Amino acid sequence: MQNAALQIPTAAQWEAVLAFRAMPILQNTRDALRRELQNPQVSFDSLVPIAERDPALCWHLLQRAVSHNPGCREQIHGVYNCLSLLGMQELVTLVKNLPTVGDQPEDPSEKMYQQALYTAHMAGCLAAQWASAKGAPTNTAYWSAMLAHSILWPWLLLERSSHNWLHFLSEGDDLVTASRKVFGHSPDNWKRLVRRHNLPDSVADIFQRDKLPDARDWRRLRRQDPRDLDSGRQLIHRSQTESMLALTAAGTAWHLHINPEGDRSQRWLTISSHAQGRRFPALVLESRDVQIKEARLRKSSFASGIGLLATPQPEGLSYPMWLPERETFTPTAATPTNEKPVAETPDTATADTVSPDSVAPEAVTPEKAAPAKNAQIEPRPTTQPEQPQRVTSEPVQHGSAYLKKLMGQLAESPASFGDWHYLMQGVLKGIQLGIGIDHSIVMLPGKNRSALRTVYAENPEGLAPFSTTSIPLQVAPLLRQLMKQQAAVHITPETCERYFKGMPAELANALPKEMMLMSVHAGRDPIGIVIAANSEAAPIPKEQYQRFRQLCNTTSQGLASLRQLSAKAKASSASSSAPVRSSQ
Q1: Helix (H) or strand (E) segment spanning residue 526
Q2: From start to end residue, where is composition biased (Low complexity) (predicted)?
């Protein structure tokens, strides 16, 4: 299971990242280069546009060129310079031997790494567009902005904890704040990575405080164009540097991908417009154009964030938090996650209705539970809970004692879990050890209740993309229907087409073809959805589905009981703290 023990990287981890060089390139880049190299009329002019679409290949070309020609780093401003120094045969050897990342990687680290490459390319395109409008060299701007965050790439591949950088961005943090939360305040280590990667001087200057505006100047850039200030000459000078262009383009690209209409995106676009002395609407139009082109290139509207603009209400991607795994079910030893479920009733008035032939989940009759008032459950200290016994026996009977013990604890003494968080973690462990299902997650609604995201997970890699991104209810009729009533669904390869009806093809094709879903409640309307599946879409027997439904029903009882206890505790606390008037 997971706990919230996030730790700053150790010196050994930094050294491993410093030494790592085997960053994969995109598989479609290798395929495109192979096809072009078979052309009798092949030339650098035809190869450069293909290579520039892959930031990882650009990074490798830079490293190879500098290693062969140590004194040429300052003269390299693009792929063409690298190929001129290396030759075509060196490119063929490099592409042939480098590892690759497919279009739809299964490994979470490769997924994060792939998205980092897409965002780096979008940052380079933004910088080139902005440089072109100012009459500056576009190749240099593209090269610097694309490589600005390349020091993050090895972290995403080597350390799963670095994925939290994207999680904190999706939670509203800025680039620097997210970096300090995940990596600590370590400017010297970042500078070592920049030097080790032979990055351009404009990228190195991003990590030099004296090369960028100070905190006061950043605040001024957020408010107004420095050309309108009498004392803005120095700020204008610093805002026009190559490092500033690379930094603003890279920062804007990340936030456009996360939430193109969010406050962070608007802030970075405002800063960029003031730094360049250009009108804000012009930069917004240019950024949208770049997002559309990136989506077409990657064949994914979410790769650039442009797909988030097509929803009825503004949406943002939500990257799940990665937490270290635990081996045993010990609720008292765990620390609750930062995500707190919301117990209020979902806003079903804004949810669209779905026709029965589109989604028809099997209705479930909930167990009788006392009505609970609308009160939010808060974590509190807990006593040692009763722990279900872990049983290892024959496959048919595997986990039956464990599941019986867990369900008894949920039904009879849910308070022994302490709070909502430990209870949900115990349920997911019960799905794995008690029922024998490999992967399970719990999806809860976000702040605006128009999308679901994974908050609790047990081996979530088999349930992508549910476990890796926020799913708007507008594009997922099945989830939308489950959030309206307590219901259960067992999807099989024969019925998946019916249940996935109405979903985007990209989402439907990526989901497991056999899985179980059931909504859970806390005495009222559903508050979330439990999803489970086996590895490689292995069949789920009817007995496992029945146990899954029983466990989810009992979970709803436990949540309702905890909700009642929380309401009573709050009422008791309020009455005891009320002033008492003595009689005269």
Answers
A1: strand 526-533
A2: 376-390
480 burial class (0-12, 13-18, 19+ CB within 10 angstroms)? buried
- The answer to whether 60 touches 197, Cβ cutoff 8 Å, is no
Alpha-carbon torsion angle 206, 207, 211, 214, nearest 10: 100
Q: What is the pLDDT of residues 197-247, one digit of tens each?
A: 999 999 999 988 888 888 888 888 888 888 887 777 888 888 888 999 999
CB 281 within 8 A of CB 139: no
Determine the longest span between alpha carbons in the chain, in angstroms: 107
Look up the pTM and report it: 0.59
User: Do 253 and 119 meet the contact criterion of CB atoms below 8 Å apart?
Assistant: yes
Please give the DSSP secondary-structure letter assigned to residue 307. G
Question: From CA 7, how far away is CA 10, in angstroms rounded?
Answer: 8
Non-local (6+) Cβ contacts of 268 within 8 A are 248, 251, 252, 255
Query: pLDDT-based confidence at 372, cuts 50/70/90?
Result: very low
Distance between CA atoms of 69 and 244, rounded to whole angstroms? 28
| 486 CB-side CA count, 13 A | 21
